[in-house]
Amino acid sequence: MDSNTMMYGVIGDPIGHSKSPLMQNRAFRETGVNGAYAAFRVAPERLGEAIAGMRAMGFRGLNVTIPHKVAVMAFLDEIDEGARAIGAVNTIVNENGRLIGRNTDGIGYVRSLKEEAEPELAGKRIVVLGAGGASRGILWALNRERPASLQVANRTWDKARELADSLAESQAPAVQAVRWEELKEACSEADIVINTTSVGMAPHVEETPIDPSWVRPGAVASDLIYNPLTTTFLQQAQERGCRIHGGLGMFVYQGAYAFEYWTGVPAPAAAMREEVLASFTGK
Ligand code: NAP
């Protein structure tokens, strides 16, 4: 670091578990970009002050995580189209004092899915389990790929219906809500089944969101969870002949897009993945 180092960071509460500093600093080292990235714990009532600090100190970029992804929008100068449709911001770019809010979660997931499991999403039948914060960005980004069908199911039916309705306002073709009881049939006909629920996440690693045998052999089973790296849902689906896709790639590519927005330099995604993986496995 020297007096020309550009500053970056992630704000959240809590933030001590974040792998973003390791991953982004590796990206700076790998590309030779003169930047440094740190994690900042920001309490909800101090969010406005934190963003004013970013402006005053000339930070080039921030990532934003739970619980600030929605509240931060009120403090920014511009929200791009995707973040507006999703209703949340996870990346801020400081363009000469103008703070622009973007969302790289959904597009990060789709880039990972295409590079690691299914290069062509157009014409595919896709089922998404869960209608929480992560599901929204993923549905928006998947819908842009023109799948044959895109269905969302949630334990709490109203949330699935509201999510499908709200996305239909900003985007065609529309996302369709299906009832949890209809999932077995929907999954058996799908080319890709994606778990965006928190079911199966450590420490409850033995749980699965649905019976993995509902996904047909040859189809892709995908899970946003990356702790564990391979969930029981993915493990059992693979045993039945499904192709599987874990959540680590989404984390890497949401960071890769942020890095590219900030620096204009292609992100060293393989090195970023290696860094995060090493922090899990201790290698
Ligand atoms: P969230 O907003 O809290 O949503 C949680 C979702 O899980 C809701 O749809 C909820 O359904 C469902 N759910 C919880 N317990 C359930 C159960 N026992 N049975 C059925 N459904 C259940 O969380 P989120 O932010 O969307 O995150 C969801 C998961 O994605 C987490 O595991 C998180 O770690 C992961 N994630 C990964 C990445 C990545 O980079 N790979 C990024 C973001 C999130 P109800 O509406 O019925 O409560």
Overall description:
- The protein has 283 residues and is an alpha/beta fold.
- Helices cover 39% and strands 19% of the residues.
- The chain has ten helices and twelve strands.
- The strands form two sheets. A six-stranded mixed sheet has the order 2-1-3-5-6-4.
- It is globular and about 60 Å long.
- NADP nicotinamide-adenine-dinucleotide phosphate binds at residues 105, 130-135, 154-156, 159, 196-199, 201, 209, 224-226, 247, 250-251, 254.
- Residues 247-277 form the SDH C-terminal domain.
Shape: globular
Which strand order does the major sheet show? 2-1-3-5-6-4
**DSSP helix count?**
10
> What name does CATH use for the topology of the largest domain?
Rossmann fold
For the terminal residues, how far apart are their CA atoms?
26 Å
CATH C-level class of the largest domain is Alpha Beta
Query: How many β-strand runs?
Result: 12
Radius of gyration: 19 Å
Task: Let me know the largest β-sheet.
Answer: 6 strands, mixed
Q: Summarize the amount of helix as a percent range.
A: 25-40%
SSE topology string: EHEHEEHEEHEHEHEHEEHEHH
Number of domains: 2
CATH architectural grouping of the largest domain = 3-Layer(aba) Sandwich
Which residues form runs of ≥5 with pLDDT under 50? none
Class from helix and strand fractions: alpha/beta
Strand content: 15-25%
Ligand kinds: NADP nicotinamide-adenine-dinucleotide phosphate
Looking at how many chains there are and whether they match, the oligomeric state comes to single chain
